[in-house]
Specification:
about 230 residues; mainly alpha; 10 helices; globular
């Protein structure tokens, strides 16, 4: 990426860190408690929270389909787009597991194997470099998957922006409404997915990306990269 894009990425990461720190000290516990008491039992959030899971389920289906089509000598631009979508989500999944190990955060609620949590045990905080189901709240894998998939689709098919906004808002509301994650988990996971998708797209379509940068230098900014 050019210096301008690199600067924007740096500012995004810095802003995310500040937002995470602020939420950790002033919002996460209060919001998690309120959501657990008032919204978690609403069935609508069960359905909304499954939106990111649909993205994840699509990945192996895409790989199998592309493998079959490639073996039959069929390869199109749509296949290239689908492969990018699957790769970005797969890479995001790997990276969020890596960060979960680094940060080792307790969950807001108890979900599996009687895991300690803030709501049930009043256990709150980061325990760095701890592996296991007890320490996998940060960053949110659901948010990371959702934002990585939506960002790629937004870049590939920008005319469907209203649909992507609905999917994003619905999925994030579901994650928070079910109290699956703290707000700071969602912010960090969403930013991780967004950046992986953005860089993955720029590498997959490097020639187009370089052409857009050249056009930007000439004062032409009416391309899909100018927003980022």
């Amino acid at each position: 990426m050019d210096k301008r894009s690199l600067m924007r990425t740096t500012l995004l990461i810095a802003s995310t860190i500040l937002a995470v720190v602020f939420c950790y000290f002033f919002i996460d516990r209060q919001l998690a408690t309120w959501l657990s008491q008032h919204l978690r039992s609403l069935a609508v959030f069960d359905y909304l929270a499954k939106i990111p899971e649909l993205f994840a389920v699509a990945v192996p289906i895409i790989y199998i389909t592309i493998l079959i089509r490639f073996s039959l000598g069929r390869w199109s631009l749509l296949d290239r787009h689908a492969l990018l979508f699957a790769n970005v989500i797969a890479i995001t999944d790997f990276m969020k597991d890596f960060f979960k190990f680094i940060f080792g955060r307790y969950w807001p609620e108890t979900w599996a194997y009687n895991n300690p949590s803030f709501i049930k045990d009043n256990m709150y905080g980061f325990h760095f470099f701890n592996k296991g189901v007890n320490f996998e709240s940060f960053p949110s894998g659901h948010a990371a998957t959702l934002l990585s998939g939506v960002t790629v689709l937004w870049l590939l098919y920008p005319r469907l922006k209203p649909l992507y906004l609905v999917l994003t808002l619905g999925g994030l509301l579901g994650i928070l409404g079910k109290d699956y994650h703290f707000l700071s988990d969602v912010i960090a996971g969403g930013m991780l997915g967004y950046l992986v998708a953005l860089y993955g797209y720029s590498m997959a379509f490097q020639k187009e990306f370089e052409s857009s940068l050249e056009g930007r230098k000439r004062g032409i900014t009416n391309d899909r990269y100018s927003k980022f």
